[in-house]
Design a protein that fits this description.
The complex is a heterodimer of chains A (426) and B (472). Helix content of chain A is 43%, strand content 12%. Chain A has 426 residues and is an alpha/beta fold. Chain A starts with 17 loop residues before the first helix and ends in an 11-residue tail after the last helix. In chain A, strands 6-5-9-7-8 form a 5-stranded mixed beta sheet, with helices on one face. A 4-stranded parallel beta sheet of chain A has the order 3-2-1-4, with helices on both faces. Chain B is an alpha+beta fold. A 7-stranded mixed beta sheet of chain B has the order 15-14-20-19-18-16-17, with helices on one face. In chain B, strands 2-1-5-3-4 form a 5-stranded mixed beta sheet, sandwiched between helices. Chain B has a 3-stranded antiparallel beta sheet with strand order 6-7-10. In chain B, a hairpin with a 6-residue loop joins strand 3 and strand 4. In chain B, helix 10 runs parallel beside helix 11. The longest helix of chain B has 14 residues. Classes of the chains: A alpha/beta (426), B alpha+beta (472). Chains A and B meet through helix 13, helix 14 and helix 15 of A and helix 2 of B.
């Protein structure tokens, strides 16, 4: 309830409905955009707000829209609801409690980009979010907010919901496009970028749920007000999902530049059972891990996080208490990436599985110090050499874990057992 | 007006790239070798093998040369340490689960993976993990064996069936390191161009059932020839034992065996493709030969048969010549120069047989003879007319029995057949296409030369020599 853009209302049994959304001022942004602005003006507002993509890469949204040729006859918009990054659960919250906010954002973006058909690509595992999104679309359609001649302004846009089939890699924009086209979810080589040739070979913009759902607020309250929130270089508020060893895990809306320690110790209630903080994965499982000591003065914005050697990513803060075995933790992560590698390009297909097998062996007590040395060498062959970012995502945890908790790995490989007994240390 | 070109620097060499050309293509055209597995000139760009990574404009991240368009003043480095290291790592990844069973692999010796491993690979593997096992040596279709363990998933074969042959019969199924190549109907990959995937496979994953374990490729030597299967006249390589190996095999027939036929890349006519009939040429060229000259069914010496034929022709009132569409242009020239005023007809040696693809979008033509165009250009396109009242017919070419020649004295010149199905008055055995050199003119009027592969067996004669002795 104490949020600015998203958490502005108490969650009730009806807060996801059109009536409730209207009651809290919903669809005013769409009205304003369609009646008072040209598409280019909407694009300028998005750019002036300084809004950055919330999917993980943090690319300037206004700039992304600008890359689409003005005279392109057909442009597509895709909303990326393939929220699969381990630890992330922000888009799910938006869809479950305020799906109309996303629909409104998509329509405004579609207006700015002159899009006739927009697509909502939702991950196959999402059940309630899917039902809420479909129900909301039906409501919106009945109210004349989606489809032909929206609000009588002559602007038409349909939103097509497409369910994914359970692949993490389809959250990458070009494989999302391939999956939408009915192909295997293989990422495409870039260039060409989707803004030039994307869905059905046409210019395409792929945006994250949180990004699009922020757009109505910017139109209603003005880009200057949005730009004034948080830090200058990446303004606004973000949804941070805190999970792991904390007393009150959950989703928090905070302005950028919010101290990470405050998020963990105040908002999330501190470490479970009053234990010591060992480490934090600050932006989803792909981002480099930070030790407890490292997060002290870190704030939740790209600049501060970059200085500390990590990224804000998708805003998924995974908190790890003292006593956790880092070898086991890394193996859980590496198993995920080995499972989710699409298998298209060589370094990722072979490398992710190789790292996982070495870690499995170490966990089973059959590792050697040479295995750890090999594990240190593999990521350099993957990072930067793959078609998409999954290879990098799989490598970064391995590199950072080994750098910061190398002694635990050496100990496990040498003695065949963990340095920690698995119980959380007091 | 010359097309505008783009200046790029590759390995400190300034080269001219054509508009739209990728770095890999421009480098190749200028003789700079950038290793590549998945890239193929005639297939779409996949960019999945990652061996062609190069350093561009000193950017920290390497770029795949196969997907990188040339831009003005681009500076490309293909052999700096970072690139070499990336190649080593990619090869390490490729060989991680590859069985490295070159010793029992037919592809060894002409394997891209082997070549690149020797040229760019790490000296030693750093892996100590047991290899993942996949299905080994199983039939992908009636003609092709697939070894999934040797496959590097470059997707060349998949793209071939989608983009060139059009059957879309192959695909990669499963995900991650579980991925493997599979036919749409497992075990039933029977595209009319299926054997091309063996040729374009950069490893020993796809192998020819026919050639499987027949011979090590380094004992063989290719000879440029032309497929006689249809009027396209695709260039082929006929693989015979190399001359060095023949010395070690005295007295055996293996020096006269064609082990396999593969495509000879000829951009003018067939590009890098060849149909399955072309890949089978060595099989149908091994059909029964006629080696014994005959006169009225009795075996005679070559000279006797020639004398008999000469006498028949000299005493004829109204002779005719059926000209073989399997004859080379050079032979046709000899015949033309010696013919005088004799009536000539085109003889179609071969007609489509049951089950054969008659004609399609890619290469296969309905006319199953390689040099009809050459015959027509010299002798016109009249077909034989039984009502014309010829008393002696010189039939040059195969399938003599199919001709309506009842009651006429005829001389049959043919490389293939048996005495039973050659009831001609005089039968003179000829050399076949592989036993002489020459050229064919295909249906588009393009001339395509072929070399001599084997020496002709005793008892047979070249058609040109036969004509010369008949005319003397």
């Amino acid at each position: 309830v104490n949020g600015t853009v998203f958490m502005t209302f108490p969650v009730t049994a009806t807060s996801h409905t059109l009536a409730d959304y209207r009651a809290r001022g919903g669809y005013a942004g769409l009205e304003q955009a369609l009646r008072r602005h040209t598409p280019d003006e909407v694009g300028e507002r998005a750019k002036a707000s300084g809004l950055q993509g919330r999917g993980g890469a943090g690319f300037m949204t206004g700039l992304k829209w600008e890359f689409v040729a003005r005279d392109a006859p057909v442009v597509y918009l895709c909303c990326n609801i393939d929220e699969g990054e381990p630890g992330t659960f922000k888009d799910r919250w938006i869809l479950e409690h305020s799906p109309h906010q996303l629909i409104e954002g998509m329509l405004i973006a579609a207006y700015a980009l002159r899009v006739r058909h927009a697509f909502a690509y939702i991950r196959g595992e999402f059940d309630l979010p899917l039902r809420r999104l479909q129900a909301a679309l039906q409501e919106a359609q009945a109210a004349g907010l989606v489809g032909d001649n929206i609000l009588g302004t002559g602007f038409s846009c349909d939103i097509v919901v497409h369910r994914g089939a359970g692949a993490y890699v389809c959250g990458e924009e070009s494989s999302l496009i391939n999956s939408l086209e009915g192909r295997k979810g293989f990422p495409r080589n870039k260039p060409p970028f989707p803004a030039v040739r994307g869905l059905y070979q046409k210019p395409t913009v792929v945006n994250n749920v949180e990004t699009l759902a922020t757009v109505p607020w910017i139109l209603v309250h003005g880009s200057e007000r949005y730009a004034a929130i948080g830090v200058k270089k990446s303004p606004g508020t973000r949804l941070f999902g805190v999970s792991g060893h904390v007393e009150r895990p959950g989703l928090f809306e905070k302005p950028t530049g919010y101290p990470l320690a405050q998020l963990i110790f105040d908002d999330a209630g501190g470490i479970l059972g009053g234990r010591k903080l060992k480490a934090v994965i600050p932006g989803g499982s792909s981002t480099p891990i930070l030790t407890g000591a490292e997060i002290e003065n870190v704030t939740l914005d790209p600049e501060s996080m970059g200085k500390a050697g990590s990224m804000v990513g998708s805003g998924a803060v995974i908190v790890i208490a003292e006593g956790t075995c880092m070898v086991r933790l890394l193996q859980v992560l590496s198993r995920f990436y080995a499972h989710e590698s699409c298998g298209q390009c060589t370094p990722c297909r072979e490398g992710t599985d190789w790292m996982n097998r070495i870690l499995e062996r170490v966990i089973a007590g059959r590792g050697t110090p040479a295995d750890i040395a090999t594990l240190r060498r593999i990521p350099s062959g993957i990072q930067g050499n793959t078609v998409c970012a999954l290879g990098d995502a799989a490598s970064m945890p391995v590199v950072s874990f080994l750098k910061k908790f190398g002694d635990e790995f050496d100990h496990y490989a040498t003695h065949g057992r963990s340095l920690h007994d698995g119980r959380l240390a007091p | 007006v010359s097309a505008p070109t783009i200046k790029v620097t590759i390995d400190q060499r300034e080269v001219e790239a054509r508009p739209g050309e990728t770095v890999l293509q421009a480098a190749r055209r200028h003789g700079i070798d950038i290793p590549h597995f998945c890239y193929h000139d005639k297939l779409s760009i996949s960019g999945n093998c990652r061996i062609c990574l190069v350093k561009v404009n000193n950017l920290p991240k390497l770029q795949p040369a196969c997907n990188l368009g040339c831009a003005p003043n681009m500076v490309v480095e293909t052999s700096v340490e970072q690139v070499q290291q990336a190649r080593e790592q990619v090869l390490q990844f490729m060989l991680l689960n590859h069985p490295v069973d070159c010793g029992i692999c037919d592809k060894a010796g002409e394997c891209r993976l082997q070549d690149y491993q020797h040229a760019y690979g790490p000296k030693q593997s750093i892996a100590r993990d047991p290899k993942h096992h996949k299905r080994k040596l199983h039939d992908l279709g009636p003609r092709i064996t697939l070894d999934n363990e040797r496959c590097i998933l470059c997707s060349r074969c998949v793209r071939f069936t989608r983009e060139i042959s059009g059957s879309s019969a192959l695909g990669i199924v499963e995900r991650g390191h579980h991925s493997y190549v599979e036919a749409q109907v497992p075990g039933r990959f029977d595209d009319a161009y299926s054997d091309n995937v063996i040729e374009i496979c950069p490893t020993g994953a796809l192998l020819s059932n026919d050639f499987l374990y027949k011979c090590r490729v380094w004992f063989l030597q290719p000879v440029r020839s032309v497929c006689t299967g249809c009027a396209r006249g695709c260039s082929v390589k006929v693989w015979r034992r190399s001359s060095v190996r023949q010395q070690h095999m005295p007295g055996t027939d293996s020096s006269h065996v064609a082990y396999r036929t593969t495509v000879f890349e000829n951009p003018d006519i067939n590009g890098p493709w060849l149909c399955n009939k072309g890949y089978d040429q060595h099989k149908w060229m091994a059909r029964e030969r006629l080696l014994q000259p005959l006169v009225r069914g009795q075996a005679v010496a070559p000279a006797g048969a020639l004398a008999e034929a000469k006498q028949l022709l000299e005493t004829a009132r109204n002779p005719a010549v059926l000209v073989s569409t399997h004859a080379s242009n050079e032979e046709l020239d000899v015949l033309q120069s010696l013919l005088g005023g004799v009536t000539t007809y085109v003889h179609r040696d071969w007609l489509p047989v049951d089950g054969e693809v008659v004609e399609d979008h890619l290469l296969i033509r309905a006319d199953k003879n390689p040099n009809r165009a050459g015959v027509v250009a010299r002798f016109g396109d009249r077909e034989f007319d039984p009502a014309a009242g010829h008393d002696v017919v010189l039939a040059w070419g195969e399938m003599g029995t199919a001709l309506p020649l009842g009651g006429v004295a005829w001389i049959h010149l043919t490389p293939f057949g048996t005495p039973v199905d050659a009831p001609a008055t005089v039968v003179i055995p000829l050399s076949n296409t592989w036993e002489r050199r020459g050229s064919f003119t295909n249906f588009e009027g393009k001339s395509n030369p072929f070399e001599q592969v084997f020496t002709k067996p005793a008892g047979v004669q070249h058609a040109a020599d036969v004509f010369r002795s008949l005319a003397s």
